[in-house]
Amino acid sequence: MKKQITTHSAQETKALAHTIALLLNEGSVIALSGDLGAGKTTFTQGLAKGLEIQKMVSSPTFTIMKMYSGRLKLTHIDAYRLEGLHQDLGFEELIGTQGVCVIEWPEYIKELLPQDYLEITLTRLDEDDRLIELIAHGDNYIQILEKLI
Ligand SMILES: Nc1ncnc2c1ncn2[C@@H]1O[C@H](COP(=O)(O)OP(=O)(O)OP(=O)(O)O)[C@@H](O)[C@H]1O
Ligand SMILES: [Mg+2]
């Protein structure tokens, strides 16, 4: 199942992410793709808010992974620097097993993605317009997308 939503401001993208966060469960995985400046961090900030995380979420580019506590724990992974490294960082035990996991640049750790996950791709259409494509892999995520307008 696939849904497409266009947002017209960073605030709108955050609001959408906030709504999605309310529908997530323990073990939820989101693969978040999009070019530089598309809004991946902005989206994750909205998601964090929806998970009742108080801390400000910033890009984990240099740290590869950051964790936050909230209604559910959020693990924010940026796989950009892992391209082709195939290092065992213990992600396999982490992804999809606890809290919510958001993975930026998921194509670089494809082999670590679980069978079921929510695939989200952000595309910059204009200064403030973003196309947000959501693809559900697995029944749980189909149900989540059905609840979104
Ligand atoms: N509709 C929108 N949705 C999301 N961000 C938007 C939107 N309109 C404008 N923006 C702006 O676009 C920028 C998106 O930056 P952000 O850091 O979230 O992107 P990113 O995908 O994480 O980039 P990077 O790969 O460089 O980390 C922000 O400055 C945000 O305010
Ligand atoms: Mg970012």
Mean pLDDT: 93
Q: What's the helix-strand series?
A: EHEHEEHEEEH
Q: Rg, please?
A: 14 Å
Q: Could you say which overall geometry the principal axes of the C-alpha atoms support?
A: globular
Low-confidence blocks of residues: none
Give a topology summary.
Elements: E1 2-7, H1 10-21, E2 28-34, H2 40-50, E3 65-68, E4 74-78, H3 91-94, E5 100-104, E6 117-124, E7 130-137, H4 139-147
Describe the structure.
The protein has 4 helices and 7 strands, in the order E-H-E-H-E-E-H-E-E-E-H. Strands 1-7-6-2-5-4-3 form a 7-stranded mixed sheet. 37% of the residues are buried. Helix content is 24%, strand content 29%. The chain is α/β, with parallel strands linked by helices. The chain has a single domain, classed as Rossmann fold. The protein starts with a strand and ends with a helix. The mean pLDDT is 93. It binds adenosine-5'-triphosphate (ATP) and magnesium ion. Magnesium ion binds next to helix 2.
Brief overview, please?
It is built from 4 helices and 7 strands, in the order E-H-E-H-E-E-H-E-E-E-H.
List keywords for this structure.
Rossmann fold; 7-stranded mixed beta sheet; binds adenosine-5'-triphosphate; 149 residues; alpha/beta; globular; single chain; 7 strands
